[in-house]
Amino acid sequence: MRIYVAQMEVVPGNPEKNFSTMQKFIGEGVQASADLIVFPEMCVPGYLLSDLWEENSFVERCIQVNESVRELSKNVDILFGSVAKEEENGENGRSLLYNAAYYASKGNFKTLVDCQGIQKKFLPKTLLPSYREFEEPRYFSDLRKLAQTNGIPVSEILCPVEVNGVKLAITVCEDGWDSLYKIKPFEILQKKISSGDLMINISCSPYTQGKDKARDRVFGAHAKNANVPLLYVNAVGTQNNGKNIYAFEGDSSVYNAMGESIFSLPIFEEHGTLVNFENGKLSVSEEEAPRKTGIAEVHQALVYMIRKNLTRFSIRKIVIGASGGIDSAVSAVLYAEAIGSENVFLVNMPTRFNSNTTRNAAKDLADNLGCPYMVAPIEEVADALRASLAKDSFVRNDTQMIVEGIHYENLQARLRSAAFLATVASVVGAGFTCNGNKSEVTVGYCTLYGDTSGVMCALGDLWKTQVYELAREINSQKVVIPQASIDIPASAELSDAQNVDEGKGDPIIYPYHDRLFAFWMERWQRNSIADSEALLEKGISEYCKELGVDEAFFRSKFQSKEEILSDMKRWWSRYKGIALAKRIQMPPILSVSRRAFGFDYREAQLG
Question: Which site from 2, 27, 35, 215 is most exposed, i.e. has the minimal number of CB atoms within 10 Å?
Fold first, then answer.
């Protein structure tokens, strides 16, 4: 059997465009004399669509495209993922839908469920994820529910499909990540196949850093346990849920019967390749492309998401506040790589609090990248607004409008983003960015309607220490980011207390606070301040070891246990207080970690 793997870009909410892409790959597969072409999960409708699934006309469009794909199967078999719809409604009164696999052959859909009088021309996904960004049970039923409704064990209703004497054990995405589920599709299927058969998993699985190692471990184990090779086919592209933007990296993989990955398709790239299945073995003649790892892979993912999403939003230019600091410098590089430096407009907005060091760094960055650059001082406007408010007063309240201290700092931040950058963007026909990082977002070290504004937040899922790591990776081949931006202390430069030339900067202690914040928000079993306090009770050495912080560095920053606890409580209070109010109003975050703020990390305002 010759199998053509179609690692296609899936465009969410556009079944007609996705069908055109499928037609292209089907043509390639036929030309390669393939017997079977395999597409990803939900390749017709897209995956992250939220309540668009409640729009009946959209579902009907997808069903029509399913039929169009079926008509293309007269000369080649086609396995693909899409939505399936029953005639009756579900328990919520809406259409009864499935995330399903279809197998089209000789112009017809094969029956993929045939048990005790229950027949379906599609195979419903067995396991529906409802954690992190996933919420499939809100929209779909599954094979477990179908079995339960008809009083049939899942172990009987889930069966492989036979094609020319070969049994294909088909699963859909989460069906492979079954370790925490009572029902395990791969264990059921491996009892119904033998040497000479094949397992295929179709997925639309979002990228997270390091996921390839976890996937190789999980799917490699499935292949080894069944002693049968496995083909994993994933989508590429970007999709979002309104608050988080995800990349789908592809990385479709071929596993032999010993569980070894013998070939992977390129990441973040549409690609088709021919896989030969003969005598129970998979083989690929194509040479595997080298892939990036670590922060270089994250770099690639971010640029990919920026490029794809600006195109989707019809934004061709971007305006960035270039402060001379590390966040704006890294953001500028990412956007310049994504859409071209000529389309990235850098604006430096100084006041008397901005040092020559950062001003020069901002200009040097623009020169290194070749971006349009402008200096737009904001102090005159800030002072005019302050003077104007000082003349004003309320009726029935004697509060004086004295804009000093933190009020003046926030005024500067809001002028820079919501006024200057937004207006410049309007004039040049561009969007503008939010340069905030995950550390600042965690504890609200940002100004609402100021630096939290923008069309999307490129660094919002990177801790500050990761931003520095990314800067060093960017400069590893050629110095693009000025060294001054890397060397100076991180600072908002909104007052004399934040003078970078005097070594003054943000109150967040890097890298310690990054690791503390990650301990609170990234662990699968969520930790609270009580957990960090209990950990500290075990001693500073154990505390630092668990967080991954250098003990000598940590001891140089804190002189007593009371000081540590006081600092911890301060940041916890912000994390669960004012920062939460700011987070829920953040722009969409490019998500690359195992837990990102937004719709991945769901929060409610409680107090």
Answer: 27
pLDDT score at 531: 98
**98 with 243, same domain?**
yes
Coil, strand or helix at 21? helix
- For residue 580, being part of any structural domain is answered with no
Is 571 within 8 Å of 513 (Cβ atoms)?
Answer: yes
Same domain, 280 and 326: no
Q: Is the predicted pLDDT of residue 14 greater than 80, yes or no? A: yes
**Domain hosting residue 79, numbered range:** 2-285
Q: 172 and 232 in contact (C-beta within 8 Å)?
A: no
Closest CA to 98 of 53, 155, 156: 53
Phi/psi region, residue 437 (left: phi>0; alpha: psi -120 to 50; beta: rest), is: beta
Residue 507: cis peptide before it, omega within 30 degrees of 0: no
379: pLDDT strictly greater than 80: yes
CATH number at residue 363: 3.40.50.620
Residues 27 and 160 occupy one common structural domain: yes
Residue 162 is which amino acid? E
User: At which residue do the structure tokens 């209070």 appear?
Assistant: 573
With respect to residue 345, please indicate whether it lies within any of the assigned structural domains: yes
**335 in the same domain as 243:** no
CB 110 within 8 A of CB 120: no
For residue 250, give the DSSP letter. Answer: B
Q: Is the pLDDT of residue 214 over 80?
A: yes
pLDDT beyond 80 at 297: yes
Angle formed at CA 559 by CA 553 and CA 565, multiple of 5 degrees: 95
Centre a 10 Å sphere on the Cβ of residue 408 and count the other Cβ atoms it contains. 17
Q: What local confidence, expressed as pLDDT, does residue 521 receive?
A: 96
- Helix axis angle for 512-521 and 561-576, nearest 10°, is 50
Nearest-Å Rg of the Cα atoms of the chain is 27
Convert the pLDDT of each residue in 237-290 to its tens digit.
999 999 999 999 999 999 999 999 999 999 999 999 999 999 999 999 999 999
Considering the domain architecture, whether residues 75 and 160 belong to the same structural domain is answered as yes
Q: Is there a single domain that holds both residue 273 and residue 321?
A: no
Quick one: average pLDDT of 142-164?
A: 97
Average pLDDT over residues 129-143: 96
Evaluate whether residue 537 is within a structural domain.
Answer: no
In a domain, 550, yes or no: no
For the cut 80, the answer to whether the pLDDT of residue 574 exceeds it is yes
- Return the amino acid letter for 269: E
Q: Report the pLDDT value the prediction gives residue 94, as an integer from 0 to 100.
A: 84
Which of 60, 35, 33 is closest to 45 using CA atoms? 60
| pLDDT of 89 over the 90 cut | no
- Give CA separation, 508 vs 160, 327, 443, in Å: 55, 15, 9
Task: Please give the backbone phi and psi of residue 375, each rounded to the nearest 5 degrees, phi first.
Answer: -100, 125
Task: Tell me how many domains the chain contains.
Answer: 2
**Band (448; pLDDT cuts 50, 70, 90):** very high
Whether residue 379 contacts residue 352, with contact meaning beta carbons closer than 8 Å, is answered with: yes
Q: Average the pLDDT over 430-448 and give the result.
A: 96
User: H or E stretch including 261?
Assistant: strand 261-264
Amino acid at 265: L
**Shared domain check, 314 and 244:** no
The CA angle 230-122-185, to the nearest 5 degrees, is 45
Quote the strand ranges of 50-165, DSSP E. Answer: 77-89, 95-105, 108-109, 113-115, 118-120, 123-124, 140-141, 161-163
pLDDT at 364: 98
